[in-house]
Amino acid sequence: VLVLSTLNQCVRRARGIKLPATPTDASAERAQRSVAPTLLTERVGALVASLRRWNYLQILQWCYLWSSCIMLYKLTPLALNLLLAWMKVAMADFHFVLICAATFLAGMVLFMIPPVPGPPIYLFGGFVISDN
User: Fold this and answer.
1) Burial of 43 by CB count in 10 Å (0-12 exposed, 13-18 middle, 19+ buried)?
2) Which one-letter DSSP state was computed for residue 95?
3) In 67-107, where do the E strands start and end?
4) Is 12:18 a contact under the CB 8 Å cutoff?
5) Could you read off the pLDDT of 25-84 as tens digits, one per residue?
6) Cα separation of 93 and 13, whole Å?
């Protein structure tokens, strides 16, 4: 957008085209204040000026928050597989009723966590309960 705006402004300057400004327009006041020609068109220049007033530290904090959420959603299935493999080994010597109860409780707890997918929990229950 910046390149197109610059090209547009260069063509306007080369052709001698100047946009008419009305005295009631706020952009006319800005045009009267800054007599020097700019590289960008008026609209894109106003957008760039608005972007310069942003609070970049707060934007960076939101970027870190959302990227952490994305990483959580990507890494949770890997950690889930490790947890379920450990639980299968840990429950190998348990009584059948205790295995069913532990599988039910683990499934209920894991289903409460949003990034945890369902199919590994179903497969875990099938593998652990069918082994006994």
Assistant:
1) exposed
2) -
3) none
4) yes
5) 555 555 555 545 678 888 888 899 999 999 999 999 999 999 999 999 899 888 988 999
6) 84
